[in-house]
Each structure stands twice: as structure tokens, then as C-alpha cells.
Amino acid sequence: MHACTQQQFSAVPAACWQSRQQQQPALAFRRSAAVGGGSSGALAAAAPRAAPCAAARSPRSTQPCRAVAAPEREAPRAAAPSGKPPMKVVIAGAGIGGLVLAVGLLKRGFDVTVLERDMTAIRGEGKYRGPIQIQSNALGALEALDEGVAQRVFEEGCITGDRINGLCDGVTGDWYIKFDTFHPAVDMGLPVTRVISRITLQEILADACREIAGEDVIQNSVNIVDYEQGVDPATGKKIATAIADDGRRFSGDLLVGADGIWSKVRRKMLGDSQPNYSEYTCYTGISDFTPADIDTVGYRVFLGNGKYFVSSDVGGGKMQWYGFHKEPANGTDPPGARKQRLMEIFGSWTHKVTDLLKATPEEAIMRRDIYDRAPIFKWADGRVALLGDSAHAMQPNLGQGGCMAIEDAYQLVLDLCREADEVDKEAAAGPRRDIDVEGVLNGYMMKRVVRAASIHGMAGMAAYMASTYKAYLGEGLGPLEWITKFKIPHPGRVVGQVIMKATMPGTMSRVLGGYRKSLAQSDRVPVCHLADQPRGFPESLFPLYMEDDDALLRASHAYWVLTPVTDGSSASPEALHLEFEAAKHQSPVISREGVTVGTGAGCDMVLTAPTVSEQHARLHQCEAGDYHVTDLDSQLGTWVNSRRLPARVPQRLRPDDVVSFGAPGQGSLDFKVCMFHNSLLESGGRHGSYDRRRAAEPQVALSGK
Ligand SMILES: Cc1cc2nc3c(=O)[nH]c(=O)nc-3n(C[C@H](O)[C@H](O)[C@H](O)COP(=O)(O)OP(=O)(O)OC[C@H]3O[C@@H](n4cnc5c(N)ncnc54)[C@H](O)[C@@H]3O)c2cc1C
User: Fold this and answer.
1) Which residues pair with 333 in a beta bridge?
2) How many Å lie between the centroid of ligand 1 and the Cα of residue 113?
3) Pathway, per Swiss-Prot/TrEMBL (predicted)?
4) CA 330 to CA 308: how far, in whole Å?
5) Is 475 helix (H, G, I), strand (E, B) or coil?
6) Distance (Å, rounded) from C-alpha 560 to C-alpha 574?
7) Nearest protein Cα to ligand 1, atom 39
8) For position 263, what pLDDT does the model report?
9) Alpha carbon distance, N-terminus to C-terminus of the chain
10) Ligand 1 atom closest to Cα of residue 261
11) Residue 391 CB-half CA count within 13 A
12) Fewest CB within 10 angstroms: 121, 388, 410, 443, which?
């Protein structure tokens, strides 16, 4: 029997199945009936799977029953039970793809060596150490490969898929289209999408490799520049040899080039070719920041013309953002000037964007040009194969590049194990043949190329969409730009929205669930984890929030205030704090009871300026939860976004609206409508102290909203 059969993918031995059952969460969950439009329902608990857990917990327990402390590890094997040495796999590159492949193979008894050019990239000392979104499809593959490792990723990651995500207008911040990534995961029995620090992810994977095979399994400072294929003179067997720039040679039964977009293995296999510049440079940063709607919104892409901006909760009170801008490659910024540049590019956009920029220290802002490679259909050459970005580097817009690398790794482990088992089976009845490495690598490539190419295509489409968005007719028309002032919705925006609304559910299920059939060949039980429930709001409210922007806005755990409009020239974290302080001192929290504004001593918000009347305006939150301003027959009027309000008629307010007391630009006092997360009141405006995981328990019941 070959080494890998004890952890094989398909036929699960009875003992193994038993132990897996005990490791599975005792309670799987299914989506509530309300989501399908039926009666209201909570996250319903399915029948308990394992008796000990079921006895200990009520089926509606909000806590995950499974408490996997440490991953189960197999002892490294010197030789397979057949007496033959295990297959030797050399992996060039210890990025996400290389490490996931290494874990999967080591766990199944293969002899693995990972060769990394620069280990600091793994430990995060390299430049690009930001978080990465690992979506349901890849989490499912990871779980199928090594449940213990997956469990650690689940615990360390910040769940974004349990909230509303989507695309917004960059200037107004209004929703363009929302994504529900939660229900596709639940419906397909996959873990819910998470964001995790790359450093943490790679550490988890590298630790898992070392636990199985010792420190030397990952070799640092090995820059692979070439490979050869031939015959081992000692054994007469075919081998592949990776060659480092210092002449060191590393031979194995096969070589996997997981060495990223600038892959040297690929260069040798396919000839020299350069990646394509996407025409976008990308600034990125992580900031201590608590958005007002952090409990209801996970990540957002703000769309623009020739620029777009991505923000995502990454847990621990931090937000990650990416600002993409169309410009020639290899641009640089003078020292200390990145934030200023970003404010020039995005300064007129919604405060959801500018607040994040303000909250990021200059030195935490990084910049890189974005490249991809056209899809290729040859990933294998004899005993050498490509995996991850070396085969299919794509634009980052779908957050799927790393996920595809994980799927690749799963497929290769699956195919190698299958072939090894087949050889064992045949050996029981006759002479033992060699493992058909070339056949396996060819099969792996055939199974992966179409999916990788289609995700690559979707990522390209998403990038195109995000960067060619035009809100109003006239945008990008040069001398005709003045037409934008009529605010006529751009036809491209309208048609695009209709098409996306119609196609998004199908696209989501293809991206997240398109690899599910392959996962079904593992012994992974297709359940979504109980802990993956929405925390910010009950699951039954998902459909409402997907449809109704106002309902989603109302659900934010936030209070509303007016902050004095500044010229926006200061982009420091202190500026953000000053805004909070200014709001605290000048504007009371807008409440149900209402807040009066005027020069009169009895007003809640006393403003002394010639443009302000004694009783000028009233702000209040209405019964439904929306916020309004009403002009109280003031002399010079109350204006919202430069439009004078009729007296005594309440006007609905939205975040980012500018309210002016007196005619704007003529000595008026101008305020911006702002939302602050409730936690900021307690922390005195200190961002980054809110831990959503602790603050919000999973929601299992209807809140009665
Ligand atoms: C801005 C941005 C955001 C992204 N966000 C996401 C996201 O949210 N989700 C997602 O799934 N993907 C995302 N991606 C894509 C993702 O980063 C890549 O697809 C993923 O890292 C590919 O993994 P890999 O293992 O194939 O390659 P890499 O992660 O690039 O790893 C390659 C490894 O090989 C090493 N190496 C290189 N050359 C050699 C050599 N000659 N010899 C030895 N070792 C070598 C490198 O040092 C590195 O450790 C994003 C990409 C960008 C640019």
C-alpha cells in the first residue's frame, strides 16, 4: 500500500471516517426559510452529527461545538508501507500555493522540499504584507487538504462574508450593487469568506510543514533559475532537477514551479515573456479605523473613472484599503508624499474613502504596479508543473489569485494520491509499475486550465468595470464635462447595474462553488461552520439589506452628527480625531427628540454667525430611523448640498450631505453629515479599539427590526 492511502481522498476507511465525524462541527446549519422568501426563520440547526456534542449542547447553541485545539499531525514517514521510498516532490516557491501544496503532500506521506528565494517574504518582512481574502472555494479546498490548518485559518481570519459586500459610487458612496457571499457558501456547504494577514496565513502553513517534516523542509535563500529533466544514474528512474543560481541542484520525482508571477520555472518551460502591466498602480495601507457600518458591511469597492478604491475590514480594529490609479508603470513618489498624492486623487470622494486615507500613517502606505499574465494552456512539461501565479497570474479585483493557487494545490494532491493508490492496487494483483508522473501532471493541468482561465477572465472584467465607471453623462467627455452638473445617470452605469443584478448570483455561485464537485471527491463533509453566522445582524435580514439601501444604513450601529466642513487639506489621523472632537463639541448627537440649531441661547446647537437665525433649523431622527433637517423659517435659509429647503418641510439627510445655515459661500456655516460608530463614543474617538468579534455575538434570532 502506498503511503498516502491512510489519508486518501476518495474511499475513506471506516476508522478514518469515524474520527472525521468526531472532528466535524456537531451542528451544521442551513439557510433560513426566510431567505427563500418564505416564513421568517433563524439560522436553523441541522441534526447533530456526533453524539457527545449533541448531548452537551442545545441544537440552537450559538457556539461552535467543535473545539479543535491542535491539528492532527502524521509522523513523517521514511518509507511507505510498501517498503518503497515515498515520492519526492520539489517545490520552487514558498508562497501561498507552494506552502498549501507542501502541507497537503506532507500530510499524505510524500517527501517534500520547498525552496524559497527569500524567506522574509513569508515572515512578512518583505514589502507586501497586507491581508488577503480567502474565499469560500479556497477555504473548502484547504479544509479538504488539512482540517487542522483550515481550522487555524478560520480562527485567525476575519469573516467578511457574513456581511453585505459590494460596489459603490466613489463620489457619493451610494451602493451600486451588493454581493451576498454568505448564502452561496451556506447553500453549498462551504466555509464563509475570510480575510487573513498573509504573514499569519503563511506562518500557519509553514508551521504545519515543519511540524510534519522538521525545520529543513523549507529551505531559504534558494533562488531557482533553471531546471533539467533526466534519469537518476543511481536508480535509473526519471527525475526533475531544480537548479539554483549558485549551482545547487535539487532533484525529485517531480518539480512544481510555485514561484509566482515572475516564475523562472515558467520561463524555462515556456520561454521568456513579460507580465502585462494592467495600466494601474496600486497604493495600499492598513489603518486603525472603525467605520460606522462595520457591523453590517464587510468590504466595498468604490468605483470611478480611471481610479477605484477597495476597503475591507481585516479584524482587530483595522481596515485595509487599496487605491488604484491609472498611470504609466514605474512611477514613484517623493518621500512622505504618498498620502498627499492619494488625497489629490481621491480627496473629492466619499468620506468612507477619505477617512481611511486620513487614518493611515504616511509610512504605512505602500505602492506597487499591478501586472497579470494572459491565460495559458500549457502548465506541465514532463515531470515539471506550474501552480498558482506562475501559471495564471490575474488581476486582484476578484480576490481570487491566491484562492486559485489553493485550488491548484488541492487538485495536484488529489491527482497524485489517486495515481499512487492505483499503483498500489495494481501491485496487489501483479508487478508494481512506476507512478505515471507525466500523466498526473497533464491531467492536473487539464482539470485546472478552464476554471483558472474563466476566473482570470472575470477578474479582468471586474477590473475593467471598476475603472471605467461613470456616474453621470458628460464624465470623461473633456470639453463637455459641464453636462455632469445636470446629474443625468450615465447609460453605461444604468445598463451595467441591470446586467450585474441579473448575473451576480450566478457569477457568485460559479466563483465560490465552481470547484465544489472536485471537493466532493475528498472526505470533507460539506457543511458551513456554525461559527460562520452573521454577527452584526440576524441572517434573516440579509434579503432586506440586499434590496434596501436605507434599511442597511439604518442597521449601522452608529450615531449621526454634523461636523464642520474643513478645506480637506489636512489628511492626518489627527485631522480625523479633530473632526470627531469638533462634532462632539459643536453638534449634539441627532436624536429622536430632535436638536435645534440657531443663535438663541435655548438652542441645542448654538451657532453665532450673521447668517444664522435665532431659531434656524431642527434636526431629528424619525420613527423609521432616518435623519431629517427642517428649516424653521430662517431668514437666509437652510441648504442641503447647495439647494435651499422650503421652510417647515423635513428633508431626509444622508451621510456626506453638506448642510449650510445661510446661503453657501456667502458667509454660511457649513457642516457635513457624519456617522460615527457607537464604540467611538466610549473610546473618545479612538479608532481601532473596537473588536467586532468580541463585541458582536452571532445572531441567531430575529431582532424584531
Ligand atoms: C494588490 C493585490 C491584492 C490581492 N488580493 C488577493 C486576495 O484578496 N485574495 C486572493 O486570493 N488573491 C489576492 N491577490 C493575488 C495573490 O496575491 C496571488 O495570486 C497569490 O499570492 C499567488 O500565490 P503563489 O503562491 O502562486 O505566488 P506568490 O504568493 O507570489 O509566491 C511565490 C513565492 O515564490 C518565491 N519565489 C519567487 N521566485 C523564486 C525563485 N526563483 N526561486 C525560489 N523562490 C522564488 C517568492 O519569494 C514567493 O514566496 C492579490 C494580489 C495583489 C497584487
Assistant:
1) none
2) 19
3) Hormone biosynthesis; Plant hormone biosynthesis; abscisate biosynthesis
4) 19
5) coil
6) 20
7) 259
8) 97
9) 60
10) 30
11) 32
12) 443
CB-based contacts of 289: which residues, under 8 Å, 6+ apart?
317, 318, 319, 355, 356, 359, 687, 688
Closest CA to 41 of 31, 55, 28: 31
CA 74 vs. chain centroid, Å, equals 31
Planar angle of CA 612, 617, 621, nearest 5 degrees: 145
With the most atoms of ligand 1 within 8 angstroms of its CB, the residue from 116, 142, 219, 410 to mutate is 116
| Torsion angle in degrees (nearest 10) through CA of 70, 75, 81, 83 | 160
- Cell output for 554: 439604518
Cα of 96 to ligand 1 centre, how many Å?
7
CA separation for the pair 531, 62 (Å, rounded): 7
pLDDT (tens digit per residue) in 349-369? 998 999 899 999 999 899 999
Q: Name the residue at shortest CA distance from atom 17 of ligand 1.
A: 402
Question: Which ranges constitute the DSSP H helices of 146-197?
Answer: 147-156, 182-187
- Largest distance between two CA atoms of the chain: 100
CA of 260 to the centre of ligand 1 (A): 5
Reported in sequence order, the residue ranges of 392-497 that DSSP labels E, i.e. its strands, are none
Q: Which backbone phi and psi does 278 adopt, to 5 degrees?
A: -80, -5
Q: How confident is the model at residue 456 (pLDDT cuts 50, 70, 90)?
A: very high
The predicted pLDDT at position 675 comes to 87
Query: Cβ atoms within 10 A of the Cβ of 274, count?
Result: 8
Instruction: Show the beta-strand stretches assigned E in 170-220.
Output: 175-179, 194-197, 218-219
- Residue 260 has φ and ψ, to the nearest 5°, of 80, -175
Q: Which ligand 1 atom sits closest to the C-alpha of 132? A: 8
Ligand 1 nearest-atom number relative to CA 389: 26
pLDDT in tens, 239-264: 999 999 999 999 999 999 999 999 99
Q: What residues flank ligand 1, with Cβ below 6 Å?
A: 92-98, 115-118, 121, 132-133, 222-224, 258-260, 264, 282, 322, 370, 388-389, 396, 399-403, 405
Q: Which atom of ligand 1 is nearest to the CA of 133?
A: 8
149 close to 70: Cβ distance less than 8 angstroms: no
Comparing CA positions, the residue from 211, 209, 70, 63 lying closest to residue 152 is 70
Who's near 207: CB < 8 A, 6+ residues apart? none
Closest ligand 1 atom to Cα of 98: 25
User: What is the fold, at CATH topology level, of the domain defined by 558-677?
Assistant: Tumour Suppressor Smad4 (2.60.200)
**Helix, coil or strand: residue 439:** helix
- Mind listing the pLDDT tens digit for each residue in 515-536? 888 888 887 877 777 667 788 8
SS3 280: strand
Interatomic CA distance for residues 134 and 324, integer angstroms? 21
Q: In what order do the strands lie in the sheet with 669-677?
A: 558-564, 669-677, 658-661, 638-640, 643-644
Triad 109, 111, 114: Cα angle to 5°: 125
CA atoms within 13 A on the CB side of 593: 4
Given the cut 0.95, state whether the ipTM is greater than it.
yes
Q: Which three cell numbers stand for residue 459?
A: 477578474
pLDDT value, residue 567: 57
Q: If you compute the radius of gyration of the chain from its CA atoms, what whole number of angstroms results?
A: 28
CATH for 3-273+373-545 (3.50.50.60, 3.40.50.261, 3.40.50.10260, 1.10.150.170): 3.50.50.60
Residues 241, 221: Cα–Cα separation, whole Å: 17
Mutate to test the pocket of ligand 1, among 119, 281, 389 (most ligand atoms within 8 A of CB): 389
Q: Write the Ramachandran bin of 620: left for phi over 0, alpha for psi from -120 to 50, otherwise beta.
A: beta
- Please answer whether residues 526 and 533 qualify as being in contact, where contact means their C-beta atoms are separated by less than 8 angstroms: no
Which ligand 1 atom sits nearest the alpha carbon of residue 402? Answer: 11
What 3-state class would DSSP assign to 197?
strand
Domain boundaries, the chain: 3-273+373-545, 558-677
